[in-house]
Amino acid sequence: MLYLVMTFDAYVAAAAPRLRAGLVAAYGSDVGLDAAAEALAYAWEHWDRLSTMTNPSGYLYRVGQSAARRGRRVPPLVPPPSPIDVPEFEPGLLPALQQLSESQRVCVVMVHGFGWGPTEIAELLDVNVSTVRSHVSRALASLREALEVNSHAVQD
Amino acid sequence: MQSRIEEQLAAYYGWVEEQGGVSLRPPQSSGGIGEVDRLPLVDTGPPGPGRGRVRSTALVAAVAAGLMLLVGSLIAVTRPTAVRLQPVDSEPVAAPTTPAATAVSTAATSTPVSSLPAGPSLVSVPPKIGDDDQRDPIQRFLGVPKEPLDATEWSRLVTDQAVADCMLAAGFEYAVPQPVSGGVPYGDPAFEAALRGDGGCDEQANVRVNLLPSFQEQFDDLTERITASPDPSAVAARQAVDDCLVANGLDPQDVDDLRASADVCRAEYDLLGEISAELMEQYAPAWISEHQEALAARRDDLADLLARARQHRAVPPDFTHPDPWSAALPPLRLGDLPVQNTELGVAGSKAVSFTNDGASACLRITDLDLDAAATGSVCTAVTDSTGVLDLNTYPQPTEADSLGVTIVAVDASLGFTIELVDDAGATRPCDSRASRVGSLMVWTCTYTADEEISRYVAIEPSGKTLSLRLRN
User: Fold this and answer.
1) B-chain residues within 8 Å CB-CB of A7?
2) What is the pTM of this model?
3) B417: which of A22, B181, B202, B300 lies 20 to 30 Å off by Cα?
4) Which residues of chain B are within 8 Å of residue A126 when distances are taken between CB atoms?
5) Residues B27, A109: C-beta atoms closer than 8 Å
6) Which residues of A touch B269 (CB under 8 A)?
7) Residue B429, burial from CB neighbour count under 10 angstroms (0-12, 13-18, 19+)
8) What is the ipTM of this complex?
């Protein structure tokens, strides 16, 4: 019994932030937002099909990944913020993020950059929650190591 | 450094979000983890009485565990998520008047339990059919089929018929979209607006078919009764969740903490969900009685929609039959499969398709992560009994990856069963999630590298089913 059946608009309102967050984390804001838009357009065209899926967001994330990779011309973009907008920004963070695997970057950015929970991320990426936790842990370790190395290098 | 990294990430991606001008964060009003993908659980209705206020998140647990039991089985709701507990000494609410509930209340505590106000006598709620009947009393009262697959189809039929009724009233003839290929926008803007516009027939049909949002207040009332139950096992279960949260450094009253809590207190949440489902059985009959007139009208309307829907289109033979691909069907061979090319869908990073040209049948898996570079297929003569697909030609799953296989039987008379086969040859059902889409049958089976399953796929027609076996 479906006490509620979601309309497309309601689904998009609920699902779009997470989808965008994942794709922005993976491919940067420009490519990621474009990919999310493509994925949502796909959702509109195939809503009857998507609405029966157990994990439509996971499906759309894959659609977005394909869209992003099709159009990828440059590495994932993580433009530096202006010093006014983000004061005391660690300049080594963005290069360190670039060095992470896509999965690690997506997980750590979604958790600590956007505030999503491991279960939500696991659904989006269609992986186990333990995998998400592992990615976050390893990503933080890598970032910490990278930034500490940079820090030592500067001090030296 | 770690905390500084987290702060930097939050600051930087806050700036990114601001630059992008769109929300990239979880909705603050979200009741819990994973809510987005529980399609039927998300209220799409307009604001109304009782909506928008902060509700006890214990309500969410009760709803997830009890009210939505069948929904859970259909759409893989895993378990109750964010739960905020009412104080143990909270004011008790109306107790059920069923014998079972009376027994519970008597045995529970000395806490005074108010009785239901005088009202209509209890209605007859159909009993569960077997131990595997996951319907709650409300679903049984409304006539929802027992089998999850049938319930999915039931929902589709009544909703489509409701849309068709609405469109007809608006002056349009609505052809029910074909499964899989449906959903393509119609060319006529007026038709589109009538169907999918604000207040359009999609929306109206949902309101007509579903109890929410129109029964939101009543559901709130029921869930509050359940979550405030003085049943000692419920009290203990709530307390166990509460204690677990505190032990893990989480604040049960803090919604942000609750978002991260479901995974650390899994066993406690599961138990609370089971108890909530039991309480639902106790409390719902009285609640149904209180709203008998409206619910009976809704039940009759749904039955009418279903009857008319079944008149207009082919439907599976019998919702009540436990096996829609039963007995009278002839043995299945690959050659029995229709000549066709079918895109079965995408699962994990793999796209799966099935082709049959009348001479050979092929299962094809495309790795999306590798831009179709790692595409492989297995073909077998349609008269053969077995085909084997060697997945060693594909990159092995990494920790980050998962391989999923979605198989669609192309006709209601054909079934696929999916098993996972381990090294020792033992089989077990895969984590299959099945649904029926029109005349199509969809199974989704997933496994991950953690499970160390499967490098081979064997297609083994046997009797009336075609088994897809994943082998190490």
Assistant:
1) 44, 202-203, 206
2) 0.39
3) B181
4) 347-348, 402, 404, 446
5) no
6) none
7) exposed
8) 0.81
